[in-house]
Design goal:
Layout: E1 11-13, E2 18-20, E3 46-49, E4 51-55, E5 65-69, E6 78-81, H1 91-94, E7 97-98, E8 105-113, E9 125-134, E10 139-149, E11 160-165, E12 167-168, E13 177-183, E14 200-209, E15 223-226, E16 233-238, E17 243-250, E18 255-262, E19 264-268, E20 275-283, E21 286-294
Length: 295
């Protein structure tokens, strides 16, 4: 069995109260987009359907990635952030985690593995929807979206970077949640010649990409960091906090740098090697961890 059940740290931030379950992530960050937090048998804030789940078989960074694949040739494998109930699996209605800005794109890394299959290696899809609850209609509006079919990869190439450009449908209206759906096929069917075993679709290191220079606080008590990816200097804006301790870590939680910063700070990260990192900001009524990419 190739797959392991996905689990991530769960977090639900509110304006006036914050419930901590595991590490705290900002609402401009995809919760556990690297799939590193969890256990083998339970899930939190990510849901899987059919032949999908968290796996340690292969990863772009860290120890885990998400694996989606069809069950036989017709049952589509799906991975969706948020809590989605089976068997109905109404992923767009029930899925999603808190998110309050519109990024330029959602990015990440993917890989196909067709070693033990006969698929044409080209059918996986990433869908992203930003929702906002409409009190008048008592339903959700889709305020932005993006869809991308991912082309085939060379098995010897390793993970390949991708991005899903986001189209703004309601200018001036920010979302309150994001739904990300990873599908192992574009129409629920996979091309299988002699066996019923479909391609394995791995995804890792999901991030939200914001335009350079964005400086809009999410909530009054939250901090904001940009740009992401970062080349040299990471900008940090603290709200209602005169100072905080900024700690940069690798994806395993090993401390690389720790220093006290003021309310507006440019953190020199030019010395970091290329890759994925975490930064924790801790101060009065503030404890946030953001994931970023050094390029």
């Amino acid at each position: 069995m190739k797959i392991k059940t996905i689990i991530i740290n769960s977090i639900i931030p509110f304006i006036f109260s914050i419930i901590f379950i595991g590490n705290l992530f900002s609402q401009s960050t995809i919760l556990n987009g690297g799939f590193e937090s969890g256990t083998d048998i339970s899930t939190a804030n990510w849901s899987t359907h059919i032949g999908s789940g968290r796996t340690s078989d292969i990863s772009n960074s860290g120890n885990y990635s998400m694996l989606c694949h069809n069950w036989y040739s017709y049952a589509e494998g799906q991975c969706v952030n948020g809590i989605v109930q089976t068997p109905n699996f109404q992923w767009l209605k029930d899925g999603g985690t808190p998110f309050v800005q519109k990024p330029a794109y959602i990015g990440g890394y993917y890989k196909y593995d067709t070693t033990d299959t006969f698929s044409n290696n080209d059918s996986a899809v990433v869908e992203v929807y930003f929702k906002k609850y409409n009190n008048s209609l008592q339903s959700y509006d889709t305020v932005a979206f993006g869809i991308k079919k991912l082309p085939g990869t060379d098995p010897a190439q390793g993970f390949v970077e991708f991005d899903v450009p986001i189209t703004d449908l309601m200018s001036g209206t920010n979302p309150d949640s994001i739904v990300i759906r990873l599908s192992s096929s574009i129409n629920g069917m996979c091309d299988s010649e002699t066996t019923m075993d479909c391609l394995y679709f791995y995804v890792d290191d999901l991030i939200a990409g914001f335009p350079l220079g964005i400086k809009t606080p999410i909530f009054e008590n939250n901090a904001h960091v940009w740009p992401n990816p970062v080349e040299d200097n990471l900008n940090i804006l603290l709200n209602q906090n005169i100072k905080a301790i900024a700690t940069v870590m690798d994806m395993n939680g090993k401390e690389i740098l720790s220093k006290t910063i003021g309310s507006e700070h440019r953190l020199d990260l030019s010395f970091l090697k290329l890759g994925n990192y975490l930064i924790n900001l801790k101060g009065d009524s503030l404890n946030q961890t953001h994931k970023f990419v050094k390029k």
